[in-house]
Amino acid sequence: MARIVLLGATGFTGRLIAQRLAAGSTETVLAGRSARALAAMADELGGRCKTATVRLDDPATLTELLEPMDVLVTTVGSFIEHGGVAVSAAIETGAHYLDTTGEAPFIRRLFEDPAVAAARAAFVPAMGFNYATGNLAAALAIEGAGADEVDCVDIGYFLTGETQRQLSGGTVDSAAGVLMSPGFTRRNGELRVERCGARTRSWVVEGRRVSSMTLGSSEAITLSRSYPDLRTVDVYQGGLGALTPVVAQVSRLCAIPGAARIVNALKGFVVPGRRGGPDPEARARSGTHAIAVAYSRVGHILAEVVLRGPNVYDLTAELTAWGAQRAAEGSIEGSGPLGPVAAFGLRALEAAHTAAGVRAVELSNR
């Protein structure tokens, strides 16, 4: 029977995923750099998981661990820098691949990799809140409006509740890398390069008007594969408040030599975070909010879906563990690079969100 191999198991997000996997029936292998940390974690989980030491600077340690139709789940970022090792290992061994990336340049690279396209296993990146939940919200809006009527979708991502300094260190590192990398969007049927923050807009979130800025995402690639009449996809990230227009200009710096070092030095101030991540009590005081609005060819709103859920890390862990278990059971559709709707089906993905505590607080057709 297929196993789940969790790479980065002792990191903050990896630990949350491991807790969910240990409660299931699928054999799980915790993989990472430190044998001591892995052993301690396996003990914490009641000895229900095996462990394996893997070093990304020695890719053979990962390929020798994997077997065909295993499920490799990786949380190791930044994905732009380190993600290629896990992808290559999955291609070589025939293992299914899932990750928790929110890094759009890495997602695009994976979808455009000929070796991934030819792979016999499935590759499903971004199985967390970003961007599985936005894929779901958009698909529900498109289906509600009628897929042949929808020309454009806007998607917004927000954190709610007590969000100050509730981002993990890994999230902050990834965010800084994304801001300094070329983004992209889908415009008039074409995937176009566009810097992060090229456009801003406001949304109503829990009764308050909240600003947001554009960024690259999986939806710009995945949704048109499921809905070929969809020509434009814009994805926005909120949560920076009055800093939104400032941060939206950061990506302009990428052409300046040495700018990346400056952004890295300032990221802790612009995007508050910490090493590790928030504890259970802190996570319970924050939540997630995703919005998708479907438009007609003449710009009329056809449908709007709002999905409200638990803390971003808990939701990401629930969705990623669910996807890994489904893949291990053989309940995954297709091979090569896939979005979450194509990989698991709309209704199954919706049910997984419901089980994770996500509720549709507004579901309307105009």
TrEMBL record:
Signal peptide: none
Pfam families cross-referenced by the UniProt entry: Sacchrp_dh_NADP (PF03435)
Protein origin, superkingdom: Bacteria
Domain Saccharopine dehydrogenase NADP binding: 4-101
Transmembrane segments: none
Family as reported in the entry's similarity comment: Belongs to the saccharopine dehydrogenase family. Enoyl reductase subfamily.
Name this polypeptide is given: Saccharopine dehydrogenase
Organism, scientific name: Mycobacterium lentiflavum
Lineage of source species: Bacteria, Bacillati, Actinomycetota, Actinomycetes, Mycobacteriales
